[in-house]
Design brief:
The protein is of the alpha/beta class and 363 residues long. It folds into two domains: 73-139 and 225-363, SGNH hydrolase (Rossmann fold); 141-218. It is 34% helix and 16% strand. The chain has a seven-stranded antiparallel beta sheet with strand order 5-9-8-7-11-3-6. The chain has a five-stranded parallel beta sheet with strand order 2-1-12-13-14. A two-stranded antiparallel sheet has the order 4-10.
């Protein structure tokens, strides 16, 4: 009985030692695998800085370069146009809200574009306009006139305006922005707004004319559109879109391009992160819709803005950037840019137009 107990005890000790040896062997093998997995290896699609070569001790280690900003060449450095510049100086037409308005005809981004390009630049910015209101002025969102009669003389007459889907029309609330002189069925005149109602006054006497229901009301901006114009559209800030509702803004901008028969354009991304929590998704959707014709100026401002403006970041600037907001040193208030902001935006629009082949970059 004692011998049987001793034999059993020796068996248990032997098995325990066997298990311990197996565990230690497994740990050693795992350590070798971890070391192998962490050896530097060139990532797919990258070029190693040192070419691997076989030696007596095995292949040499390679060093993977740090990833570069794939869009950096569009923002800084040399700009190579993607198409030949045709040599003609195009007219640049800027449609937008208060972020486009110029108070002094010298320091807003359309003014900077004029200075850099030497082109005629037209500013159709109106404060507080939504994307739909901008599209109404430009023609992307059709505005119709209710049936009426325009008399032969130049008397002021009431006119009733509605969008094509019978929506409310808002012109002249905060500025003209390319509305006047307007036209109805070819008759040029002036639109005015009194006590919330619209009135039309023809410019010159002529024949009395009956206007059919659904006749299109045409603004000056629509009538003045020319083949070869380069359009800048900076719209949507007052809509405060999210990742879903931005699709309506994209549709309006596409309709604006179609209304102007425009193939040369730049769509400016939104910058007001404080009021647009999903601004990254919003700008990404716009980028997907417009490709290289989309300028993500917020991304540029956050990455290069202060450096290119020659401004040393303040503590507040660094806090803003960490939150994804345009740094305070580039803003005049919570949403509007200051002179540095507008100069940078004008420069980046100019560079994008050169890149797209609309302008020839001046050396």
């Amino acid at each position: 009985m004692k011998r049987s107990y001793l034999t059993y005890l020796l068996f248990i000790i032997a098995m325990t030692l066997f298990v311990i040896l197996r565990i230690n062997a497994g740990k050693a093998l795992a350590a070798e695998n971890v070391q192998a997995d962490t050896e530097p290896v060139a990532a797919a699609g990258t070029v190693p800085t040192t070419a691997p070569s076989e030696t007596e001790s095995g292949p040499e280690e390679t060093v993977t370069p740090a990833p570069a900003d794939e869009n950096e060449y569009l923002y800084r450095g040399e700009v190579e146009p993607v198409s030949e510049y045709d040599g003609a100086d195009p007219r640049i037409v800027c449609w937008g809200d208060s972020l486009t308005v110029s108070l002094d005809n010298a320091s807003a981004y359309p003014d900077i574009l004029r200075q850099l390009s030497g082109c005629e630049v037209i500013n159709y910015g109106v404060e507080m306009d939504s994307a739909a209101m901008i599209a109404m002025r430009e023609g992307g969102l059709r505005v119709n006139v209710k049936a009426t009669v325009i008399p032969a003389d130049t008397n002021l007459i009431p006119v009733f305006l509605r969008t094509e889907d019978n929506g409310h029309v808002r012109f002249l609330d905060n500025g003209d922005g390319g509305v006047n002189p307007c036209s109805i069925s070819g008759i040029e005149g002036e639109l005015s707004k009194l006590n919330g109602s619209y009135y039309f006054k023809r410019s010159r006497k002529g024949e009395r004319l009956s206007i059919d229901e659904g006749t299109q009301f045409k603004t000056f901006g629509m009538n003045d559109a020319r083949e070869g114009d380069v359009l800048v559209i900076f719209a949507g800030t007052n809509d405060l879109p999210d990742a879903k509702s931005v699709q309506q803004i994209i549709k309006l901008e596409q309709a604006m391009l179609e209304a102007a028969s425009c193939s040369r354009y730049v769509i400016v991304g939104l910058t007001y992160a404080g009021g647009i929590p999903q601004i990254d998704e919003v700008n990404e959707a716009m980028h997907e819709a417009f490709g290289d014709n989309f300028l993500d100026i917020r991304k540029y401002m956050l990455t290069y803005g202060l450096d290119d403006a020659g401004i040393t970041p303040t503590a507040q600037d660094e806090e803003d950037i960490a939150k994804g907001e345009i740094p305070s040193s580039l803003r005049s208030d919570y949403v509007h840019g200051n002179k540095h902001y507008h100069r940078l935006l004008g420069q980046q629009l100019y560079r994008r137009m050169c890149y797209l082949g609309y302008l020839e970059e001046k050396k």
